[in-house]
Automatic annotation (TrEMBL):
Species assigned in the record: Methylobacterium ajmalii
Domain EamA, first and last residues per copy: 28-154, 177-305
SUPFAM superfamilies linked to this entry: Multidrug resistance efflux transporter EmrE
Transmembrane residue ranges: 87-108, 114-133, 145-164, 176-193, 200-222, 234-257, 264-284, 290-306
Keywords assigned: Membrane, Transmembrane, Transmembrane helix
Any one Pfam family match given in the protein's UniProt record, by short name: EamA
Name this protein carries in UniProt: DMT family transporter
InterPro entries assigned: EamA_dom (IPR000620), EmrE-like (IPR037185)
Length: 316
């Protein structure tokens, strides 16, 4: 996928970094590990949901991760002095995009079935490719489109048998599509922030600060259920949601977006769906059938087809 450099709105040029290498192994490993970490989030939300409301759990997911992300940022920048400091508009926009993603995801879960919400959320890579193509003039490679098609078929097979068409749930289905739109914007803005010289830790920390502020307002205005957990188990679930799914999952995704294009990296949502299905089977005892196995196989095949052959070029 070709990339046309666009100027960032922040003043000053990005700091110089080490030259890009052709070894994509670490970035791919970060992408897969991040998908597994984010795939744990539905299970953890299910664990804490009897005691904590959906908007409150989304807020705690981000807020409790901030101290860890701040420590990671200080450590990363001490080891890599070439990384750019400060805040760029793209990092702030990433926080707003992730806020929209979490808010509309929870609204979709409340307004329609989990299967419907998941199905519509998996269309995010389509919007990533469209936004990059139309807005950034990045014409997608044929293998990217072929891999995306396989992943969409696999995602449909993974959750499709549970998807229902119900006019009373159209608002929730709409919120699922909006979730995908915001998630697509999140991928592109994080990629832009990384291309402008910010480290993965700083991008994740800045975006998380913005997201925490927006979600705090959402809790104050929209939450009708308890905000604080009552049991140690629910508190531990919120902490795991913050440290594993957010600090780990979103942080590793930022690492991957420093080397991999957003179009390919957005396929992480399909890996996340596989991880969530496997974890639900192991932890919650939810059954998996042959159709889910076929869907997982198609997703893995699509990712293999779409994988980039070399590292993308970064601006000096």
């Amino acid at each position: 996928m070709s990339r046309t450099p666009l100027p960032d709105l922040a003043a000053g040029a990005p700091a110089a970094g080490p030259p890009a290498t052709a070894d994509l192994g670490p970035a791919l490993a970060a992408l897969v590990a991040g998908a597994v970490a984010m795939g744990l989030s539905p299970v953890l939300v299910r664990v804490v949901s009897p005691e904590v409301g959906p908007f409150a759990s989304a807020f705690w997911r981000v807020a409790l991760a901030l101290p860890v992300l701040w420590g990671w940022m200080r450590w990363e920048e001490a080891r890599a002095p070439y990384l750019r400091r400060g805040v760029t508009p793209s990092a702030l926009l990433a926080g707003l995009a992730f806020s929209g993603d979490l808010l509309f995801w929870h609204l979709a879960i409340l307004g329609t079935t989990v299967a419907n919400a998941t199905f519509f959320a998996t269309t995010a890579p389509v919007f990533v490719v469209l936004f990059a193509w139309i807005g950034l003039r990045r014409r997608p490679a044929g293998r990217t489109l072929a891999g995306l098609a396989l992943c969409l078929l696999g995602g449909a097979a993974l959750v499709g048998q549970s998807v229902q068409v119900d006019p009373s749930r159209l608002a929730g289905d709409r919120d699922g599509v909006i979730t995908a739109l915001f998630f697509a914007l999140y991928f592109l803005t994080v990629e832009r922030a990384r291309a402008r010289g910010l480290g993965a830790a700083r991008v994740t920390f800045v975006a998380s600060c913005v997201t925490a502020l927006v979600l705090l307002g959402a809790v104050a205005l929209l939450e009708t259920r308890p905000v604080l957990p009552r049991s140690p188990g629910a508190a531990a679930g919120l902490l795991a949601l913050a440290l594993i799914s957010h600090a780990g999952g979103q942080g590793l995704l930022s690492v991957a977006l420093g080397r991999l294009p957003a179009g390919f990296s957005s396929l992480v949502i399909f890996l996340e769906a596989i991880a969530a299905a496997l974890l639900a089977w192991l932890v919650l005892g939810e059954a998996l059938g042959p159709l889910q196995g076929l869907g997982g196989g198609l997703i893995l095949a699509g990712i293999a087809v779409a994988r980039p052959r070399r590292a993308r070029t970064t601006s000096p």
